[in-house]
Amino acid sequence: MLADLKLSLPIMTGVATYPAGATFGPRITRDFEFVWVIEGDVEYRVEETTLPVPPGSVLLCRPGKTDFFRWDENRRTRHGYFHFKVLSLPDDWPPPEEWPLIQAPVEGDILRPLFRYLLTWADRGDPTLLRMTMAHMLASFVTGEIAGRDVPQETLPEAVERAWTYLHNRLEEDPSTSIHLADLADAACVSPEHLCRLFKSSTGRSPIETVRLARLDRAAVLLARSNYSVAEISTVCGFSSPFHFSRRFKEAFGLSPRDLRKSLSSGATPPTPRLLQWTPVLR
């Protein structure tokens, strides 16, 4: 069956975090998109259908449909996503309009481990393995055969993992909060100098550069997937001013926030996140 299922490589991937009460859309989807709701209760509206999407669920958005997301009104929402195109289907498959829209989590759910793999390796993994993983995921989703065992998680040096977990949790609690090198070193239980050496050797970046890029990655997702203004995104993501945010964003992605949003509205592919989607983010 999978031999006749041909998919594109992931077009864009990421993990998005939204404040309580945010929305996204309406939009007309250009391709297929898997959405994994990690945290928060979501309302998904597509054409005339409205679905509740509880945490842990995996949703499949269809090309050519007008859809809309209402994120949790009472707490933050976090979800992983990736876009792809279907190039050919097995002859015995039902047409896409008959596929399920949502698969709720079950014990040993295979969809979430496969999703973790794609979020980790989408921009640097072997293309054949990526396509095989996506085909496995789509086939499991369509057939409902989603039970399975979890997969091992990749690791970083313990001090870097502690610092990254601290960074992630602080930004999840308050994306605008100040985070200093001393804070990261205290969380990692090492000296600031040693933490800098560990970050450089394991990620190629300094801790403070990692903080800045984590904010910019969040901002890029919100530019692509929310109705917030550039000024609102600047504030939400913890930048001192829209001017400072725009300058740093252009340094990282080569486009200003407004130019990126214009290119996305014209059908351009969103930029690849500057930071890898490390395992601790997805726990």
Structure commentary:
The chain is α+β, with helices and mostly antiparallel strands. It has two domains: 2-143, Regulatory protein AraC (Jelly Rolls), CATH 2.60.120; 158-282, Orthogonal Bundle (Arc Repressor Mutant, subunit A), CATH 1.10.10. The protein contains ten helices and eleven strands. It has helices at 111-121, 127-143, 158-173, 181-188, 192-203, 207-225, 230-236, 242-253, 257-265, 279-282; strands spanning 6-7, 12-18, 23-28, 32-39, 42-46, 49-53, 58-61, 66-70, 77-84, 86-88, 102-103. The strands form three sheets. Strands 2-9-4-7-11 form a five-stranded antiparallel β-sheet. A hairpin with a 2-residue loop joins strand 5 (42-46) and strand 6 (49-53). Helix 1 (111-121) runs antiparallel to helix 2 (127-143). The chain starts with 5 loop residues before the first strand and ends with a helix. The relative contact order is 0.14.
Secondary structure elements and pairings:
Elements: E1 6-7, E2 12-18, E3 23-28, E4 32-39, E5 42-46, E6 49-53, E7 58-61, E8 66-70, E9 77-84, E10 86-88, E11 102-103, H1 111-121, H2 127-143, H3 158-173, H4 181-188, H5 192-203, H6 207-225, H7 230-236, H8 242-253, H9 257-265, H10 279-282
Antiparallel strand pairs: 1-10, 2-9, 3-8, 4-7, 4-9, 5-6, 5-8, 7-11
Helix pairs in contact: 1-2, 3-4, 3-6
Can you count the helices? 10
How many strands? 11
Q: What's the helical proportion of residues?
A: 40-55%
Distance between the termini: 32 Å
Helix/strand-derived category reads alpha+beta
Order of helices and strands: EEEEEEEEEEEHHHHHHHHHH
* Rg over C-alpha atoms, rounded to the nearest angstrom: 19 Å
Overall domain count = 2
**Spatial shape:** globular
Q: Approximately how much beta-strand content do the residues carry?
A: 15-25%
CATH class of the largest domain: Mainly Beta
CATH topology of the largest domain: Jelly Rolls
- CATH architecture name of the largest domain: Sandwich
